[in-house]
Amino acid sequence: MSKLFKMNFSLYLGVFCVSVLLFLCFFGPLMAPHTLTEMLETQYRDGKVLSPPMEPFESDEYPLGTDKWGYDLSTMILHGLRYTVFIALAITVIKMGIGTLCGLYIGTWRKTPSWIIAFENAWSYVPLFLVLYFFLRPISFNSPLETSTLLGYFIVIAAIISIPSIISSVRLKTAELHKSVYIEAAMALGAGRSRLIWKHIFPQMKETLLVMFLLEIVYVITIMGQLALVNIFIGGTTVRFDPLIYLSVTKELSGIVGQARLNIYGNTHILIIPLIVLLFTTISFSLLANGLKNRYQSNYARTPWIKIGQMPNMKPIRKKFGEKQAWWPLSGEKLALLSLIIAFIGAGTYVYVTKDADVGVKSDAQATYDLQFVMDEKGVFDTVAAIEVKNQSKDDWEELVFYFIPNVFKEGHPFASVKGHSEVEMKAIEINGEKAEYSLEEDTLRIILPPNMKDKHKHRVEVSYTFTPPEEGVRFSKENENYYLAQWYPMAATYQDGKWNKEDYSDGGETYHTDFSDYRVQYKLPEGYSFVSTAEKDPALLKSEGTVKINKVRDFFIAIIKDMEVHEMKANNGVNIRLFTKKDHNKGIEDTLELAQDALRFYQEKIGEYPHKQLDMILDHGAFMEYPGIVTINPYIQDTYFYRNAIVHEIAHQYFYGVVSNDPYHQAWIDEGITEFATSMYFYAGRNQSEGQAFSIPNRRMEMVNELGLGRQYSNVPLHELKSSAFIYGQPAMELLKMMKDKYQLKGEDVKIVSMQFLSDYYHHFQYKEVNTDEFIRFAKDYFLVPSGYFNSWLNR
Amino acid sequence: MARIIQQIIIIFLLILTLAALPVIIEVNAGEKSLEWNVEQLPKIYGEFISEISKGSLGTYQLGTQVRAIEEDIGDNFFTSLKVMLIGVISAIIISLIFGIFLSRFRLTKVFNAFMNILSTIPDFIIIIMSMILAVKIYRWTGIRVISLRPDAGALNLWFPTFLVAIAPTLYLFKLISVKYYETSGEDYIKTAVAKGMSLNYINFQHVYKNIEPFIKAELIKVISLAIGNLFIIEYIMNVSGITKFIFQSNQVQPIAIGLFAMLLISGIVYLVVRIVFYLFKRGFIYE
What we know:
The structure holds 2 protein chains of 2 kinds. By secondary structure, chain A is an alpha+beta fold. Among the domains of chain A are: 2-353, MetI-like fold, CATH 1.10.3720; 378-563, Immunoglobulin-like (Sandwich), CATH 2.60.40. Chain A has 19 helices and 28 strands. In chain A, the strands form 8 sheets. A 7-stranded mixed β-sheet of chain A has the order 9-8-12-6-5-18-20, with no helix packed on it. In chain A, strands 22-23-24-26-25 form a 5-stranded mixed β-sheet, covered by helices on one side. Helix content of chain B is 76%, strand content 6%. Chain B contains 10 helices and 4 strands, in the order H-E-E-H-E-E-H-H-H-H-H-H-H-H. Chain B has helices at residues 2-24, 41-53, 69-101, 106-120, 123-141, 154-183, 187-194, 199-237, 243-247, 252-284; strands at residues 25-28, 33-36, 59-62, 65-68. In chain B, strand 3 (59-62) and strand 4 form a beta hairpin. Chain B is globular and about 75 Å long. Chain B starts with a helix and ends with a helix. At the A-B interface, helix 4, helix 5, helix 8 and helix 10 of A face helix 1, strand 1, helix 4, helix 5 and helix 6 of B. Chain B: Keywords: Cell membrane, Membrane, Transmembrane, Transmembrane helix, Transport.
């Protein structure tokens, strides 16, 4: 027990708390649940009204509650803490460095000039915060100066004005040591001033200086707090009049305290929570300083002769001279320090890796595909699809659900746009090596999980089947000798919010929603055919056998083509564009390729990296359609304007479909609308067309809606309710343009640049994530600082 | 003597420069840069000295009316002086009693621990916390602990006094504890113990006598701490003290007068404390 009392808790706790603090400084903003500009809006949820200020610990979304205006307190603190700590550190480093240097040298002078002492005395009388107050008052409020300039001034001035007191105490200690006998001895032996200072005096003061350093940090934070109480916040004060409100620009901790000062009367949590964090900050450093002091004191102190109150009873830990510092075996403090470092790095890595984990909508079914097929001379594909499906939810699954689209085109199908029909023969389905029970209706393939497998988290499904694509179908199609295999394999549906998200196939839009998956495809073709696909590196043309791979794509499209010309061109970063075509159409091949190259380059420069190394374009009969890394274009249509527009559209889809995912059934507007906007932006910003010309297609779509008298509809409706595709293509594009024109001044000077920056930021924020309307609104609202109601005219929340 | 004059001149220039800072520093909104109009400094010094030499303290602006400072400063000055005087003296007495004379008792240990915890908390946090506490106490019990109305008399004053006393108490208490601990290891204490003197006697005649110089040396620092807090406390608790002149105006004259009044208050407090020490020594300690 007595051993436990003698432990230097103050030191250990101090080291731990300071580590926690530094961790929050480095990784705080990554951990923040919201952004600084995101507000809690008054809303009904489960029959309760949620309105700011929210009390702490009431909601998971706002762990520490919100302030009066609905800004999240924890977010403000996590963003502000680094300012507080790093500014305090910067000031302390400067003043301790200069102060110590001057103090050491002045202390060794034979006589200190009286004016220095006079100045020190005069200076020690003036409260330092008052000097800063007078300095910052003319420049802090609604300052035209940059925040960084203000911070710089604060750091420099605060450091300079506190140097005299540091000099004073270092000088006194130095002078005291300078009188010691061993200094005299060193002087007698011929040591110069610098040697005396750095070899004899400074080593004696190291420990005191370290403690002083830590205490000065606390002192700087105290000054910042005092300034905050008189409404001077570090980094600038925003003043709002009527009512008079003072706001901190940087959300630096003492600033958050200061701006909440009037909350002593009510909603005290807005004041108390940042205050506690600030307290934690100062106490951490104080504890560390105290702990170090205890250790040094216990090493050097003499035992008192009379009974006194404060008896330090630490066990001294002295350096043993002549003994090597051994790091091994680890024990006691070293072990604790090592585990602290490991924990710090580990937690930091974790925070960094998972920083985007809360972005986007999640699917709990993760599939990996291993597909094999053999195509015979008659065009029958004999296929084995081995699919591994991981259950990442907490539920036990009853069944696995797949889209199996070839099945809907069987003879007698209702789709007028599909001329021929497909043939599908299911041979066998195995699950985890056992024969599986399943049902196949339309395009829904359900595989019933046997009771003993329900709690497994990984299922391996093997489906063997043969199929032929329908002649002149939609997407999944046979055009003369060419075969287009789209959605030709069982595609795992997404599992969201505790259920399988699987809708029935229908004509028109895309009814299938798949997550990003890894693919490995092994194929065998008759002689004379070439294999062109989504894969990162397609085999050489006319190669009739091979294996290809690609990771993190939403679909795997294959074109099996015969006798087509190939044209190639390079876009930025070595991305290769291949164009496959026949000669029997009137569209210029060079033109098409150049347009594709220009559009891709534009997007590469303005939006971000193109996700693949290659973009394939196949010009043939059928639909204009995007697949990851490959697009199909129909050159046989007459409307050249639409033709050119559609090419850019499909390329834009490589970003807003290929990388930013969405549910194309329930949230079809997300990829189509934003792609349409990006397409028009290419003509507007990239080709410098007039706004009317660049946006003529979305505009035309909306005019059509008017002419047909379809009235109004939200853009985020599921496909079966949709009155016209204009609501998912044209309406979002026009509304986005309107928002840009309304709000671009917040972000820049040119509406084109701001629009492209918006698309780029959107793309990078949601890379390889799924977006829905709520996520989009959350992003856009925060981007342009608009209320949620801003989108009410075209999006239904 | 030379040093004292030097010090007085430095303090005088320092205060005037400080008061002039709001006038000297200007933000150039167009170029987004800071401008220092240092050339105005001599003019400001000149004006201030000529105003004082006329025997008047000058004027200040209150809203739209211009008032003479000497007419209004009296009450404010004495309010601040009262707060400071009571605050600092009680800080010294408390820290001496608990730091030395009652140090060995068990109950003091509790007090010690409490003070140690408090001393790690920055003053301004203590100030805010205690205000929140006072509001809460009123909520729970209906007892009005503080009043933020400037005309509330004692109710308006006792709490600021208490808060002003906290920082110096913590500082002095820590200092005295450390010095007590150091002193008690000295050989003359050993001798005194060996002679069989009582603890109280040793505390008075040996320990106190040797600690007093340290306290005297730190007195300026202690008063400066109290002054620093006084500014904040008067500001946020609506005490109509001397800081009113400093915070409410942008002119050089009232700020400078306010700061000089502060200096005067510190001087008076310093003198009073020295007199108290002297009397205590004459009364209790054998020279």
